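Handout, page 2. Input:
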Amino acid sequence: MSEIAASTVHEAYAFACMRCGFGWEQAYEIEHHVDASHNAFVVYKADGERVPSPLSTPTCTNCGGHVVRIMRAGRVSTVQQLLRNRDSDAAADARERESEAVAATAAPTGGHHWHLSDLLHPFHRK
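Output:
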């Protein structure tokens, strides 16, 4: 089969699996060809390798499921960045709470000194 013409466009898509919740993004080189009989056909390539059209039979790269939502590029990476920011904020908050807890349990620097009788006072019978 000889080709008469070919043009290449670059497109990227975001995918989300409705089965396992996995999300990913992929960029494609989409080659538009016309053969000698004037029949048009398209070749999809990802990372330089020929792949099936992601629009006709999307498959989850995590679980192999076929219930996959296709979105414009950037949707998954935006959510992943938000989650990374939330996780780093949560880790910073946890470190701050931990240092506050350590400071609260440290021995008092002045004023009142605790005695065993002070701690047992609530348990005395009246």
